[in-house]
Amino acid sequence: MTPQFLIAAPGSNSGKTTITLGLLRLLHNRGLRVQPFKCGPDYIDTKHHTLAAHTASINLDTFMMSEAHLKEVYGKYSAQADVVITEGVMGLFDGADRMKGSSAEIAMLLHLPVILVVNAKAMAYSVAPLIYGFMHFHPGIRIAGVIFNFVNTASHYQFLKDACADLGVTPLGYVPVNDAVKIPSRHLGLAISAEHDYEGIIEAAAAHIAKTVDIDLILDSMRSPLPAATPIPDSPKGQLRIAVASDEAFNFTYAENLAALHKLGTVTLFSPLHDHQLPPADLLYLAGGYPELHLEALSANTPMRQSILDHCTSGGKVIAECGGMMYLGETLADRDGTEYPMVGFLGIKTTMKDAKLSLGYREVSIGQKRFKGHEFHYSRCEETAPLEKLGTVYNARGIEVPMPVYRKRNVIASYLHLYWGEQQDWLTMV
């Protein structure tokens, strides 16, 4: 029997990420093997989880994954864990279309008990109807305990415990306000910036939570059998040479996407920032990330830009997502509008000036095939030359959205972050 649970909240900004990171580090410091998961397509929280637990965090997403594949992924990565912690996304029942894609849907699918993190800063016994609603809204959800955040005194916590006693739910502790454990803004890459001491923040969060949250009670009360890991049959390894961009500017990759690439051949990581030559490659994967935070260095690395341009113009295969697409364009402008030359293969110019957020789940239909992913960017892109466009893109509700998928020679580029851990046909499109 292994402790496993999902940490959720009534809404965003309740502090569930900070509490998740603190628990991951605290349990790691106890010598336990902790496996983190993240609901939804988020890349940034998984990086923080990985830092906190010293184990790669894995995304779980019921929009991008089938139920069978999600269960397979959860079973595979949790098989050797002493504790399994899944962090929810937004509010517990918030999905792309009602509950579709929500933390609640994943909790029900995996039969995970839910620890609800409640912002009780300005509440006392009134938390009772709030918690009651979450306990009884859907019969498939089990609220197994509550952690109260932003509670500064034991006397305040007593009112909250009284509410839990009347509801029949377990109070697991409280967390006082502490500016030293706040996670900085996650917009535009600031959350993984070297400017912030995330190691120090996470260690401080672990120590802070340990004072007032009953860790032993959590471990003892959340035990259940781990799902059986689905045996994955061996398949012949492919012969492709695959180069994957991986550095401070390009790092938005799903573990299962990389696993799919490893099945196709030999994967070599390289850095468009620091290396000067593309490694020998049949397929180049330019993942998303934050090229806009490294414009001078990317632009100044002319040998690498030329090497990638040569690969593209000579018919080399390329998958470029979001930041990778921006890098393949003619120029990329910063917030002030200053343009920096990029690879120059695609007839597009991208700018961060007057940035506006575009986000949401996406499904692209190409012929009889459909591929799922998500869009998340602040930049704007304009074409400077005609480009072939593939398929039609829809949002989670099936409404068409004006987001092109470009094709030029053997290069496919778009703002889409696609999940091909299961839909590996995408890799045959280039």
From TrEMBL:
It catalyses: cob(II)yrinate + 2 L-glutamine + 2 ATP + 2 H2O = cob(II)yrinate a,c diamide + 2 L-glutamate + 2 ADP + 2 phosphate + 2 H(+). Residues 241-423 form the CobB/CobQ-like glutamine amidotransferase domain. The active site is at 322 (nucleophile). It is an enzyme of class 6 (ligase). Its cofactor is Mg(2+). The a and c carboxylates of cobyrinate are activated for nucleophilic attack via formation of a phosphorylated intermediate by ATP. CbiA catalyzes first the amidation of the c-carboxylate, and then that of the a-carboxylate. PANTHER family: COBYRINATE A,C-DIAMIDE SYNTHASE. Catalyzes the ATP-dependent amidation of the two carboxylate groups at positions a and c of cobyrinate, using either L-glutamine or ammonia as the nitrogen source. Comprises of two domains. The C-terminal domain contains the binding site for glutamine and catalyzes the hydrolysis of this substrate to glutamate and ammonia. The N-terminal domain is anticipated to bind ATP and cobyrinate and catalyzes the ultimate synthesis of the diamide product. The ammonia produced via the glutaminase domain is probably translocated to the adjacent domain via a molecular tunnel, where it reacts with an activated intermediate. This is Cobyrinate a,c-diamide synthase. It comes from Chitinophaga rhizophila. The lineage of its organism: Bacteria, Pseudomonadati, Bacteroidota, Chitinophagia, Chitinophagales.
